[in-house]
Amino acid sequence: MLFWVPVIGLSLLLIYNTLPYFSFSKDFSFIQERSFLFQSNLYTSFFYIHIAAGAVCIGTALIQFSRYILKKSKAIHRISGKIYVAVVLFIGAPTGLYMAFFAKGSFWERCLFMFMAIWWFITTLNGLSTIHKKNVIAHKVWMIRSYSMAMTAVTFRVYYILFYLLDWQLLENYQFSLWVSVIGNMLIAEYIIYRQSKHYLKSFAT
Amino acid sequence: MKSILYVGATLMIGASIYGFVDYKQTHRKKEFKEMYTADVTKTPVDVTNETKITEPVEKKDIVVTDKKTPVKKQAATKKVVKKKKKINRELFSRGPIREEINFASEEKKKTVTSKDKQ
Lengths: 206, 118
Description:
By secondary structure, chain A is mainly alpha-helical. Helix content of chain A is 77%, strand content 0%.
């Protein structure tokens, strides 16, 4: 429960902070920093589609891990799950992959963003295929991995603010927070899976 | 299931091709190279710059005879230059954190309060 309180709170904050972007104003530091990229209609379109998809993913994922909702109504879990999968596979991951080529940082940060998009796609697809095969345990494992990728959006911002308060320089802060959020989330996901599974290595099977 | 895989894979491959082609077209441009590095030059006053801190202190040292007060004034000048970092909802973003955001939000609050008084 203690784990979910900050996760839900920060996820809702992220969704709340995303909403003003749909005023299509350019008075945001993220957009101003990338004003050159936003001259391209394709990049602009992919950006707004990606943040909308991200907000939907994080919103739907919040209710997916609720045992209460799963017990009360499996239909809600299925509908919400289908929305999450469709948004990730057809919208969030492809647009994220395109934007990764222009990400802030060095070549390695761009590679990391590409890895995130691809891994998010693979884990979500595996989560879908395992539940089609009625393998609930494998479905849980792969969706935990998928959710950990979605949550990098939240954990990145937490580390970014933390290192900002510690007077780190902006670019170094951005790069380090990115690596820590991705690797940290993956490690936390694998630890949760390890605690829950009897044969951890078999959790990579589909 | 296969149709979902094919559509998703097609979108991913298309996105990577488009991204690679656009990147090849733009990565040599000066605006793209300076896009993220230009942010460093726009950051606010450098607190560690000693010349900016010492110049007003030196002028005051000539006027003040008491040894204790220059130290206090140095601390005061340092406090004036070093701005407090406040955690703001707007900081929860991937965009660069600029103190201008904090000043803009403070100005908005002032304009709102002044309008309320009227």
